[in-house]
Design goal:
With 168 residues, this protein is of the alpha+beta class. The protein folds into two domains: 79 residues, PH-domain like (Roll); 80 residues, no CATH class. It is built from four helices and seven strands, in the order βαααββββββα. The protein starts with a strand and ends in a 6-residue tail after the last helix.
């Protein structure tokens, strides 16, 4: 059983987008948005009351909160992509995730990783994406439409057979 797809900048951007809109990351995003708005409001109030030092502080804090909420997540995906391009020497590459009897093998150019089925904690699906959450809080990302010699249901059954404790 294999899941094979091409990884490029758009793919990595989509993964970060999907992973940043759930759980604690979503909570932090909302906190950064609220902090940005509050700091802007306080900055405006202090600017109109001639307390320019406080206004300056709140405007800079608003810029920092905006950066943490909106710009930093995008720059992380850009940094990760550039690092992988320098490692592999090309702008797109093929990732093959094989589901063998003894575990899961991920092959990307020169890189090979092996995970046991017992490492999978949770399976989540969203549209065509499949997220296999590992004990280490990493995610293995698959596509329902990219299975080569089986379907997602066959693969899911194999994962459950090898790890009956997985949540889905």
């Amino acid at each position: 059983m294999k899941n094979e797809y091409t990884v490029d900048y758009q793919t990595i951007k989509n993964w970060h987008k999907e992973l940043n809109v759930k759980g604690a990351r979503l909570v932090f995003f909302i906190i950064w948005c609220v902090m940005t708005l509050l700091c802007l409001a306080f900055g405006i109030v202090f600017a109109f009351n001639s307390a320019h030092i406080y206004a300056f502080f709140f405007f800079w804090t608003a810029i920092f909160c905006f950066y943490k909420g909106f710009i930093q997540p995008k720059s992380v995906s850009r940094f990760q992509y550039k690092r992988l391009v320098s490692l592999y020497g090309k702008e797109n590459w093929t990732r093959t995730v094989s589901f063998e009897d003894d575990g899961i093998i991920i092959e990307e150019e020169k890189n090979h990783s092996h995970y046991n089925y017992c490492d999978i904690v949770k399976i989540t699906t969203k549209n065509d994406l499949i997220f296999l959450k590992l004990k280490t809080n990493l995610f293995l990302i698959l596509y329902k439409s990219k299975f080569v010699d089986c379907t997602w249901e066959d693969c899911k059954q194999k994962i459950i057979e090898n790890n009956p404790n997985v949540k889905y």
